[in-house]
Design goal:
about 525 residues, alpha+beta, Alpha-Beta Plaits, 9-stranded mixed sheet, 16 helices, globular
Length: about 525
């Protein structure tokens, strides 16, 4: 498998021709009334009603004024290792931890009348969209939600999830974003694009526990309280201004949070009595080796008891500048529709490069970032050196395809692509207890490192983690001697890190056990 200019250009043109014109609706004035009528008709026919903003078609986008809540589980990295190394046992512990953390968060979000957008690793994104005409009330509900999650998730994780420590950093911002969905079937991918969602995610980054709000949210809180509010200033890991609102959120939401915690946990205990097999001690994770290419992975067939674990490369590629681009279009439906349509084309091409050109598997899109995995090898083992080489070629192809889209699509010439790569033993599964909203998960030290490398890169940089660097061939080590390179297209990647004919090797006895 390989990337070619002609194939990519033809594919991008096909995506562009087939991409629908996007209809932009206002959440309060257009979308909700239409959804209400749709659900009334479904209910009258005995059909399942649709949740707001979940399952939007590719031709729909909704402008939503909402409060975004990001919850970051600070201690998750510790759950991934056992005696300073990743093992099958430590990955089982980590996935079991996430399984109950996701379930607890879902119950807290539902009980608060909010909506879960997505989980990604140890991070939850939820949004409060109602009441549509009262931003202050949405902020108050978001603070209550933050307290519910802190109390419910911590208590549930301790009681049902093995007693692992859990601390939370929560970021909150309010503003207008564009809601879309690019998934289909059992791979739904609802997301919100815009400054408020992006900034809330940044506020949730850092090592200090607490609830951190934007200055806009702080001003709204002052209005709610009817007096100036003095909050201790702090800073997120990326330097964004924040305010530690933990004590305030507790004073406003502690009583309701404690009541909600008790109510949710009581319902959960009842569920466990009715279904003892779902208790944490009985959630059984079983791993198997998946023969490359990983493109043949079916997420619909994965479950805790049927999970994958093997050495693989993880790649994150984030569109640099897209949030600013789409934020600048809000208020102009034609331009917003064009920006959403462009994103569908870009994402279609990036996913096709991963799947069709390199036999990799997209895990998910996280906003405007693709998370993918790739492996080379045979039925018994991953060839780690070849996998690193292929992941470098994949990164170059992603940049080449992205550069091509900028010559075809309007308005995106200033966008870039930041890419991070790493390699290590990584599990892939579906977890949570939400049926068709169960969560695709692929998380390990290598995936965390790949995302970190991407997040600290700019739109021209490709960065490689220590695991991939150590497993790479001599050419890869020479080319990535500083761990980062700029403007690495496919041709540049192949020229500097050529494919070598090396027999597949097993890195550890543990890898051998998983392949047999």
């Amino acid at each position: 498998m390989a990337w070619t200019y002609d194939t990519a250009r033809a594919r991008i043109n096909d995506f562009n021709r087939s991409a629908p014109q996007v209809v932009i609706e206002d959440f309060a004035e257009q979308y909700i009334p239409r959804l209400r009528l749709l659900n009334e008709g479904r209910a009258s026919r005995g059909e399942t009603t649709a949740a707001p903003l979940f399952g939007l078609s590719r031709s729909e986008a909704v402008v939503v004024n909402g409060v975004h809540v990001y919850v970051n589980l600070l201690d998750f990295d510790d759950a991934l290792t056992e005696i300073q190394r990743e093992t099958e046992a430590s990955h089982i512990r980590a996935l079991r931890f996430l399984h109950f953390h996701y379930a607890a968060c879902d119950r807290a979000v539902e009980d608060a009348g909010a909506q879960r957008v997505d989980f990604h690793g140890a991070r939850l994104h939820a949004v409060v969209t109602e009441p549509a005409n009262d931003e202050g009330e949405r902020v108050r509900r978001a603070l209550e939600l933050a307290e519910r999650i802190r109390t419910v998730a911590a208590a549930a994780t301790e009681e049902f999830g093995g007693g692992l420590a859990s601390r939370y950093r929560i970021g909150i911002d309010s503003g207008v974003c564009v809601a879309i969905n690019s998934g289909r079937g059992d791979e739904q991918e609802p997301l919100f694009l815009g400054n408020a969602a992006n900034f809330a995610a940044k506020l949730a980054e850092g090592d200090d526990e607490g609830v951190f709000v934007s200055q806009r949210v702080m001003r709204l809180l002052q209005g709610l309280l009817g007096r100036p509010t003095v909050l201790s200033e702090s800073r997120s890991r990326r330097g964004a201004q924040a305010f530690d609102a933990t004590s305030l959120s507790r004073s406003m939401g502690q009583l309701i949070a404690e009541t909600a915690s008790s109510r949710v946990l009581d319902r959960w205990r009842a569920d466990l009595r009715a279904n003892p097999a779902s208790a944490s001690s009985r959630i059984s994770f079983g791993f198997h080796f998946h023969q490359p290419p990983l493109s043949s992975i079916s997420y619909a067939n994965l479950s805790p008891g049927n999970s994958i674990r093997m050495p693989m490369a993880t790649v994150f590629a984030d569109i640099d500048g897209y949030t600013k681009y789409i934020q600048g279009t809000i208020g102009n439906p034609r331009r917003t529709g064009e920006a959403v349509r462009n994103l569908h084309v870009i994402r279609g091409e990036l996913a096709a490069v991963v799947r069709d050109d390199f036999g990799g598997r997209k895990v998910r899109f996280i906003g405007d970032c693709i998370h993918a995995v790739i492996a080379s090898g045979d039925a018994r083992a991953t060839d780690e050196m070849a996998t690193v080489t292929e992941s470098i070629h994949l990164a170059g192809a992603l940049r080449s395809s992205f550069d091509l889209t900028k010559t075809i699509l309007p308005g995106i010439v200033d966008l870039g692509l930041a890419i991070g790569i790493d390699l290590g033993a990584t599990p892939i599964s579906r977890i949570g207890v939400r049926g068709d909203r169960s969560v695709r998960v692929s998380v390990s030290k290598a995936s965390i490192e790949a995302e970190e490398r991407q997040s600290t890169s700019d739109g021209v940089t490709t960065a490689i983690g220590e695991g991939a660097f150590a497993a790479g061939n001599a050419a890869a080590k020479s080319y990535f001697r500083t761990r980062t390179v700029e403007q690495m297209t496919y041709d540049v990647a192949v020229a500097n890190v050529p494919t070598l004919a090396v027999p597949p090797t097993l890195k550890t006895d543990e890898s051998r056990a998983h392949s047999e």
